[in-house]
Design a protein that fits this description.
This protein is of the alpha+beta class. The protein is about 45% helix and about 20% strand. The chain has a five-stranded mixed sheet with strand order 1-2-3-4-5. This is DUF2518 family protein.
Protein backbone atom coordinates (compact mmCIF):
# COMPACT_ATOMS: atom_id res chain seq x y z
CA UNK A 1 0.00 0.00 0.00
CA UNK A 2 1.11 3.56 -0.62
CA UNK A 3 0.95 6.52 1.75
CA UNK A 4 -2.20 7.81 0.09
CA UNK A 5 -3.93 4.46 0.48
CA UNK A 6 -2.98 4.30 4.16
CA UNK A 7 -4.31 7.85 4.63
CA UNK A 8 -7.61 6.93 2.98
CA UNK A 9 -7.84 3.81 5.14
CA UNK A 10 -7.12 5.89 8.25
CA UNK A 11 -9.88 8.29 7.26
CA UNK A 12 -12.45 5.49 6.93
CA UNK A 13 -11.26 3.88 10.16
CA UNK A 14 -11.72 7.29 11.82
CA UNK A 15 -15.32 7.40 10.59
CA UNK A 16 -15.86 3.90 12.00
CA UNK A 17 -14.36 4.99 15.33
CA UNK A 18 -16.76 7.94 15.51
CA UNK A 19 -19.68 5.68 14.60
CA UNK A 20 -18.76 3.17 17.32
CA UNK A 21 -18.25 6.01 19.81
CA UNK A 22 -21.82 7.21 19.17
CA UNK A 23 -23.14 3.66 19.57
CA UNK A 24 -21.12 3.30 22.80
CA UNK A 25 -22.59 6.51 24.22
CA UNK A 26 -26.11 5.32 23.35
CA UNK A 27 -25.49 1.94 25.06
CA UNK A 28 -24.30 3.74 28.21
CA UNK A 29 -27.30 6.09 28.21
CA UNK A 30 -29.77 3.18 27.96
CA UNK A 31 -27.60 0.90 30.18
CA UNK A 32 -27.57 -1.90 27.64
CA UNK A 33 -25.80 -5.14 28.53
CA UNK A 34 -23.18 -5.00 25.77
CA UNK A 35 -21.94 -1.48 26.61
CA UNK A 36 -18.57 -2.75 27.89
CA UNK A 37 -18.02 -4.63 24.64
CA UNK A 38 -18.72 -1.42 22.73
CA UNK A 39 -16.02 0.36 24.75
CA UNK A 40 -13.59 -2.33 23.58
CA UNK A 41 -14.73 -2.09 19.96
CA UNK A 42 -14.42 1.71 20.00
CA UNK A 43 -10.98 1.56 21.63
CA UNK A 44 -9.76 -1.03 19.12
CA UNK A 45 -10.92 1.00 16.11
CA UNK A 46 -9.27 4.10 17.64
CA UNK A 47 -5.95 2.28 17.91
CA UNK A 48 -6.39 0.94 14.38
CA UNK A 49 -7.04 4.48 13.11
CA UNK A 50 -3.93 5.83 14.84
CA UNK A 51 -1.80 3.02 13.40
CA UNK A 52 -3.04 3.55 9.85
CA UNK A 53 -2.46 7.28 10.16
CA UNK A 54 1.10 6.69 11.41
CA UNK A 55 1.79 4.37 8.48
CA UNK A 56 0.55 7.03 6.06
CA UNK A 57 3.19 9.42 7.45
CA UNK A 58 6.07 6.95 7.64
CA UNK A 59 5.97 5.58 4.10
CA UNK A 60 7.29 8.64 2.30
CA UNK A 61 9.50 7.46 -0.54
CA UNK A 62 12.24 9.85 -1.60
CA UNK A 63 12.70 10.42 -5.29
CA UNK A 64 15.98 9.42 -6.90
CA UNK A 65 17.88 11.96 -9.02
CA UNK A 66 19.46 10.37 -12.12
CA UNK A 67 23.22 10.79 -12.29
CA UNK A 68 23.74 11.29 -8.56
CA UNK A 69 26.67 9.47 -6.98
CA UNK A 70 26.88 8.10 -3.45
CA UNK A 71 27.80 10.63 -0.81
CA UNK A 72 28.64 10.45 2.87
CA UNK A 73 27.59 12.94 5.52
CA UNK A 74 30.70 14.08 7.38
CA UNK A 75 29.33 17.02 9.37
CA UNK A 76 25.81 17.86 10.46
CA UNK A 77 24.84 20.51 13.00
CA UNK A 78 21.35 19.05 13.24
CA UNK A 79 19.98 22.40 12.23
CA UNK A 80 20.92 24.32 9.11
CA UNK A 81 24.39 23.15 7.99
CA UNK A 82 25.55 19.85 6.53
CA UNK A 83 28.79 18.85 4.82
CA UNK A 84 28.90 15.83 2.53
CA UNK A 85 31.85 14.20 0.86
CA UNK A 86 31.79 13.01 -2.75
CA UNK A 87 34.21 10.62 -4.45
CA UNK A 88 37.08 11.47 -6.79
CA UNK A 89 36.72 11.86 -9.75
CA UNK A 90 33.37 13.62 -10.23
CA UNK A 91 31.95 15.67 -13.07
CA UNK A 92 29.94 18.89 -12.82
CA UNK A 93 26.76 17.04 -13.90
CA UNK A 94 27.27 14.35 -11.27
CA UNK A 95 27.98 16.98 -8.60
CA UNK A 96 24.82 18.91 -9.48
CA UNK A 97 22.71 15.74 -9.36
CA UNK A 98 24.37 14.65 -6.09
CA UNK A 99 23.71 18.02 -4.44
CA UNK A 100 20.06 17.84 -5.51
CA UNK A 101 19.81 14.27 -4.16
CA UNK A 102 21.40 15.37 -0.87
CA UNK A 103 18.89 18.22 -0.59
CA UNK A 104 16.08 15.66 -0.85
CA UNK A 105 17.67 13.01 1.38
CA UNK A 106 18.80 15.32 4.19
CA UNK A 107 15.57 17.30 4.49
CA UNK A 108 13.87 16.80 7.83
CA UNK A 109 11.01 18.82 9.31
CA UNK A 110 12.73 18.51 12.70
CA UNK A 111 15.73 20.66 11.77
CA UNK A 112 16.02 24.01 13.51
CA UNK A 113 15.34 27.14 11.49
CA UNK A 114 18.68 28.92 11.70
CA UNK A 115 20.26 30.56 8.62
CA UNK A 116 17.05 32.31 7.47
CA UNK A 117 15.09 29.06 7.37
CA UNK A 118 17.45 27.56 4.77
CA UNK A 119 19.40 24.32 4.91
CA UNK A 120 22.93 24.71 3.53
CA UNK A 121 24.55 21.52 2.22
CA UNK A 122 28.17 21.82 1.11
CA UNK A 123 29.95 19.14 -0.93
CA UNK A 124 33.64 18.46 -0.57
CA UNK A 125 36.21 15.96 -1.65
CA UNK A 126 39.69 15.19 -0.39
CA UNK A 127 42.72 15.51 -2.64
CA UNK A 128 46.11 13.95 -1.91
CA UNK A 129 48.68 16.20 -3.63
CA UNK A 130 51.64 14.40 -1.97
CA UNK A 131 51.90 11.16 -0.03
CA UNK A 132 50.78 11.76 3.56
CA UNK A 133 49.08 15.08 2.73
CA UNK A 134 45.30 15.44 2.51
CA UNK A 135 43.62 18.59 1.22
CA UNK A 136 39.85 19.07 1.63
CA UNK A 137 38.34 20.87 -1.34
CA UNK A 138 34.83 22.36 -1.37
CA UNK A 139 33.18 21.77 -4.73
CA UNK A 140 29.72 23.25 -4.37
CA UNK A 141 26.68 23.86 -2.23
CA UNK A 142 22.92 23.75 -2.30
CA UNK A 143 20.46 25.85 -0.29
CA UNK A 144 16.93 24.64 0.31
CA UNK A 145 13.97 25.59 2.46
CA UNK A 146 13.56 24.02 5.88
CA UNK A 147 9.83 24.72 5.81
CA UNK A 148 8.71 22.81 2.70
CA UNK A 149 9.53 19.28 1.59
CA UNK A 150 9.20 20.21 -2.10
CA UNK A 151 11.36 23.33 -2.56
CA UNK A 152 10.85 25.13 -5.88
CA UNK A 153 13.61 27.64 -5.04
CA UNK A 154 16.44 25.11 -4.70
CA UNK A 155 19.73 26.97 -5.30
CA UNK A 156 22.72 24.89 -6.47
CA UNK A 157 26.14 26.55 -6.80
CA UNK A 158 29.16 24.70 -8.18
CA UNK A 159 32.68 26.04 -7.62
CA UNK A 160 34.12 25.45 -11.08
CA UNK A 161 37.64 26.55 -10.08
CA UNK A 162 37.82 23.92 -7.34
CA UNK A 163 36.12 21.32 -9.53
CA UNK A 164 38.87 21.84 -12.15
CA UNK A 165 41.45 20.70 -9.55
CA UNK A 166 39.76 17.30 -9.16
CA UNK A 167 41.49 14.56 -11.20
CA UNK A 168 39.62 13.61 -14.35
CA UNK A 169 38.18 10.10 -14.73
CA UNK A 170 40.47 7.65 -16.48
CA UNK A 171 39.10 6.45 -19.82
CA UNK A 172 38.03 2.84 -19.85
CA UNK A 173 39.32 0.65 -22.64
Amino acid sequence: MTSDQFLTSAQWAGYATLFFAVITIITWIFKLGFRFRMVGVTSFTGVLTAGLFALSLALYSRPSIPGAVRFNRVYDTGSAQVVITVPNPITAEQLDATLRQAAIDLYSPGRLGANDGKLLIRARTVLHPKPGVSQPLFLGEVKRSLARREDPELAVEINTANLAQVPKPKPTA
